[in-house]
């Protein structure tokens, strides 16, 4: 029996790599003769840099950065050779000038500006900054990377990436031409104009992004994501208005059309996608498709008899074209048996999964969430044994 174990993270509980290790170790103990292949998954958030870097045999480099609330932190970025990336993923990156021995940096926004870095009581998109992400981008350029891939999942910010742009050379001035820093959303009302630019020498920047939200409007960054980052409902109109004003200032300063704000994905990660497209010529690439190709999942699915996947919660949103849901559907369509193990299973339409795929919660329904999170390793191992332990 050949088994592909490919979990995404169990939020607030297990990293993707840890979930894969637990399941693989459990299977090897129960079935020493089985062949186990592990492929931790990433959606652009926590684990993105390490997973893609390790898959390409690259190196993780740790540097000091400023966290989302201005606190000192250490974050890592990855360095891989372009030639070590599978051909299909290289095509998605659209970097025709790179040669096999050129280096590509992999940056994870969550490592420096992530929501998980902010205690729940302190989450406030008016106060958080993406400056640390800009420090990571600058560090990769200084190291000599010929291109940068940025994953923007799990962000704590709604600053249009102005913090990151400040780390790259942009400056923010008040009505008296005095500098304002950091350019958190709360300070935007005092910004009268911008100065400076992102250096033209910054390597080509690609943003792995699966969301289609524009920057503004009812499906925009503020309305969709800011409440998850601590925004009070009554503050939404003020944040939307401030976002529109700052987007116009940035577009005018950079000589870019305001219509970039309407581009699908411009609202990703508190608008950092818009900011980096406008000021740093960044291009968006489909995140899950890139990860799928980078991890060579088609080949690994084809080699497997059974595919095991899952995440913290599996529901209808998991089947929207990315992560464990997309992997499960792809494996099932290839005729493979699929076992989905998740912390909890949300409502799924009757025909959501094909007959060869089954989804099960690892946590008993009566178990309080806090206990389920703390016991996730044992619960996952027990679920693997329950469903696959018998010879």
Number of helices: 14
H/E series, N to C? EHEHEEHEHHEHEEEHHHEHHEEHEEEHH
Q: What is the total number of structural domains?
A: 2
Are there runs of 5+ residues with pLDDT below 50, and where? none
Shape: globular
Content of β-strand:
15-25%
The quaternary structure here is single chain
Q: What is the CATH topology classification name of the largest domain?
A: Glycerate kinase, domain 2
The description of the largest β-sheet is: 6 strands, mixed
Q: Mean of the pLDDT scores?
A: 95
Structural class: alpha/beta
- The Rg value, from CA coordinates, equals 21 Å
- The beta-strand count equals 15
Characterise the protein shown here.
This protein is of the alpha/beta class and 391 residues long. The chain has 2 domains: 2-41 and 295-388, Rossmann fold (3-Layer(aba) Sandwich), CATH 3.40.50.10350; 48-288, Glycerate kinase, domain 2 (Alpha-Beta Complex). 35% of the residues lie in helices and 19% in strands. The protein contains 14 helices and 15 strands. It has helices at residues 16-30, 48-55, 87-93, 109-113, 131-143, 162-168, 221-225, 236-254, 268-280, 287-294, 297-302, 323-333, 369-374, 376-388; strands spanning 2-7, 35-38, 59-66, 72-81, 103-108, 147-151, 171-173, 193-195, 205-209, 283-286, 306-310, 313-314, 337-342, 344-345, 357-361. The strands form 4 sheets. It has a 6-stranded mixed sheet with strand order 3-4-5-6-9-10, sandwiched between helices. It has a 5-stranded parallel sheet with strand order 2-1-11-13-15, sandwiched between helices. A two-stranded antiparallel ribbon has the order 7-8. α3 (87-93) runs antiparallel to α10 (287-294), α5 (131-143) runs parallel beside α6 and α8 (236-254) runs parallel beside α9 (268-280).
């Amino acid at each position: 029996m050949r088994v592909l174990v490919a979990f995404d993270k169990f939020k607030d509980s297990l990293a993707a790599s840890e979930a894969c290790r637990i399941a693989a170790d459990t299977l090897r103990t129960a079935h020493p003769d089985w062949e186990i292949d592990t492929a931790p998954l990433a959606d652009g958030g926590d684990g993105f840099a390490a997973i893609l870097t390790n898959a390409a045999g690259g190196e993780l480099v740790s540097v000091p950065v400023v966290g989302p609330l201005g606190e000192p932190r250490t974050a890592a970025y990855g360095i891989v050779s372009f030639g070590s990336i599978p051909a299909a993923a290289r095509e998605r990156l659209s970097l025709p000038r790179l040669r096999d021995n050129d280096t590509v940096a992999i940056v994870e926004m969550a490592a420096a500006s992530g929501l998980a870095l902010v205690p729940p009581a302190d989450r406030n998109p008016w106060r958080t900054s993406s400056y640390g992400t800009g420090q990571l981008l600058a560090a990769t350029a200084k190291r000599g990377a010929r291109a940068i891939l940025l994953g923007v999942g799990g962000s704590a910010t709604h600053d249009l990436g102005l913090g990151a742009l400040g780390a790259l050379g942009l400056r923010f001035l008040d009505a008296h031409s005095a500098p304002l820093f950091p350019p958190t959303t709360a300070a935007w009302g005092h910004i009268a104009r911008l100065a400076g630019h992102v250096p033209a020498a910054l390597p080509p920047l690609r943003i792995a992004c699966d969301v289609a939200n524009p920057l503004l409007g009812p499906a925009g960054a503020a309305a969709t994501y800011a409440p998850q980052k601590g925004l009070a409902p009554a503050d939404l109109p003020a944040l939307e208005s401030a976002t529109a004003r700052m987007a116009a200032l940035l577009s005018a300063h950079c000589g870019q059309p305001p219509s970039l704000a309407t581009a699908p994905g411009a609202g990703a990660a508190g608008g950092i996608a818009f900011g980096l497209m406008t000021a740093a010529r960044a291009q968006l690439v489909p995140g899950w498709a890139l990860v799928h190709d980078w991890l060579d999942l088609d080949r690994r699915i084809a080699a497997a008899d059974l595919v095991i996947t899952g995440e913290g919660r599996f529901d209808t949103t998991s089947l929207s074209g990315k992560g464990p849901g997309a992997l499960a559907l792809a494996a099932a369509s290839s005729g493979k048996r699929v076992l989905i193990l998740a912390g909890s299973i949300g409502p799924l339409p009757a025909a959501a999964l094909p007959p060869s795929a089954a989804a099960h919660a690892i946590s008993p329904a009566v178990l309080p969430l806090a206990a389920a999170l703390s016991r996730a390793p044992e619960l996952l191992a027990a679920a693997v044994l329950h469903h696959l332990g018998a010879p």
